[in-house]
Amino acid sequence: xxxxxxxxxxxxxxxxxxxxxxxxxxxxxxxxxxxxxxxxxxxxxxxxxxxxxxxxxxxxxxxxxxxxxxxxxxxxxxxxxxxxxxxxxxxxxxxxxxxxxxxxxxxxxxxxxxxxxxxxxxxxxxxxxxxxxxxxxxxxxxxxxxxxxxxxxxxxxxxxxxxxxxxxxxxxxxxxxxxxxxxxxxxxxxxxxxxxxxxxxxxxxxxxxxxxxxxxxxxxxxxxxxxxxxxxxxxxxxxxxxxxxxxxxxxxxxxxxxxxxxxxxxxxxxxxxxxxxx
Length: 278
Fold this sequence. Notes:
This protein has one helix at 17-33, and strands spanning 41-44, 49-51, 56-60, 67-70, 72-74, 81-86, 92-95, 108-110, 116-122, 127-131, 135-142, 154-156, 159-162, 169-174, 183-194, 199-209, 215-223, 231-244, 249-259, 264-277. The chain is mostly beta strands and 278 residues long. Strands 11, 12, 13, 15, 18 and 20 form a six-stranded antiparallel β-sheet that branches. Strand 16 and strand 17 form a beta hairpin.
């Protein structure tokens, strides 16, 4: 059974039985048995906005940019449902939470043509709300450090601490928070530096790969801007290419620091940013 397209427009002629069966009886039977959305119509974001014209759309970035934010979907009526899918695998549409008229609990990333998101319009609130499972950005915290025997980093209730006059001291912060299929975007390293003379603090995100022997990979974009001055730090790193979590891979933050006279460093922990399918 298939839906007959295009729809027929009658003039003043009398309906015959074939037309009645094809365009009315058979199409009504199809609609009763299926949700027939038909071929999607592409919408291109313009200044954060698209306008719904049917129930199924592909979404593309403005001027084919690598990424673009979708803030507002215009054209909704109470109870309308819309299905959205990325137009292209090489461009990412970020559906923004509560920037315009979309309320979805967190930003949603359409970065592959295999992801589909559906929304229902609530006219009372003038908002689109997601239907079913969707992928949102989440930030998770970690403060469980590992201290090798050869380091001068010390555990404390405030975090990993390094006293004065220590050179090239290393510790690790394993990132053990993922589910298979999560997409790792980046992180922030959080703490406090007390500088009396000169200090440096570096951190990078490392993937540990199952192999014989086991190997490691420094992820592109996974290094923070070096901390080298007094005061609180909350330094972010964003991966050049988001990392999809898969089996046989583990991740850790490798922290390296040097202190001089009167210097000290406390690393409270890290805030890890991931996209998770809910």
